[in-house]
Amino acid sequence: MPSYPKVALVFKTRFEENQRILKAISNFNRFHENWTAFVDDQAVSQSNPSWLLKKRWDGVITKHTAPDLISSCVERSIPVVDLSDDDNHYSNVPKIRPDNVALGHKGAEYFKDKGYQHYAFCGFSSEDWARDREDGFTEALKLSGHTLFTFDSAYPKVNEPEWEETEERKIRDWLKNLPNPLALMCCNDLRALQVINACRDLELQVPEDVAILGVNNETVRCELSIPQLSSIPINTEYYGHMAAKAITGMITGKDPEFRELYIDPLDVVSRRSTDALCIDDKQIAAALHIIKRDACSGLSVGQIVDQMHVSRSMLERRFRKYLGKSPQMEIRTVQMQKIKQLLRETNYTLAHIADLAGFDHPEYMSVVFKKMMHLTPIQYRKQTGFQNRLSNRQVL
């Protein structure tokens, strides 16, 4: 019976994101059969490295801030991959983490497309990742001339009822002085639920008065919330795949291919908490409804004009006034969202995806996709992880 290298995986499995990353690591290893794994599912070794290192390991992947564990592994020449979402770096230890600035950009662009004029961010002042998300959100809004209201406080690492109550009271005091309608991004889903509770206490309607967006897309939190919470997912499939690939190479003596790898966010999973448009112009709101409904059925700007009985020039002017883009660009934006979803979640051929997204020819769809996304559809599919789940099956 063959002997396989042994890898320790330090992940607190009570977190949904960690479960997803472990699943991606498992998928990689299942297809390559490189090593066996032990899961420290309570991350005991984060604070007590000797507990884990009593046994000899050929590699370690840790999702948590664990300087003592990483230093102990380096001293013993054990390859280690660091997945913690902080600003700590260690010599010869590759780091993989979400692109938190890009997450902030993603949230800002999502709300800007809905026509909001007032924006806010609620975060944790003590966390590197939360500050980076706020910086990205702020940067994207300042580039377009918008102002921003912010609220930050320290995160104690332990979520206790007394702390929740105190935070919700502070958030209520902050919210009651802000203008409505308001587009509010939170640093994560936990923070977003605190904001939803504060809005309920103030009798602010979500999303009509305050539209709320979280990060991480923890489905249990998001779907138990009232209203259900919209959120930006972390690309855990790619996260785990690259971690498994990195430790596999290091076990065989290869140098890490990167020092730090940033994982781009996926598109917003929209639920009720952001299901509103903030546009005073009823005709533009009606046009956006038509586009959302029919963009992937071959909709043209001429058809919108015919349905609304307005001139094309007037429609173009109002779109640029309220959204900063043309009606045609909005049609393309909705089509791109559909294409990206199908590339991520299915193994459909490009011809079938083109048909579902309202394109007559897959070749033209690919040209438009590359122009807007700066990647070909196949490159996007590989980057977002679906190809990894298909093993060696080819997706055309």
CATH architecture of the largest domain: 3-Layer(aba) Sandwich
User: Radius of gyration from the CA trace?
Assistant: 23 Å
| Domain module tally | 3
Span between termini: 38 Å
The count of DSSP E runs of length 2 or more, i.e. the number of strands, is 11
Annotation field: number of helices: 18
Mean pLDDT: 91
Overall 3D form: globular
H-E string: EHEHHEHEEHEHEHEHEHEHEHHHHHHHH
The CATH class label of the largest domain is: Alpha Beta
- Helix residue percentage: 40-55%
Name of the CATH homologous superfamily of the largest domain: Response regulator
Main β sheet profile: 5 strands, parallel
Low-confidence stretches: 387-396
For this structure, the CATH topology of the largest domain is: Rossmann fold
Question: Into which percentage range does the β-strand content fall?
Answer: 5-15%
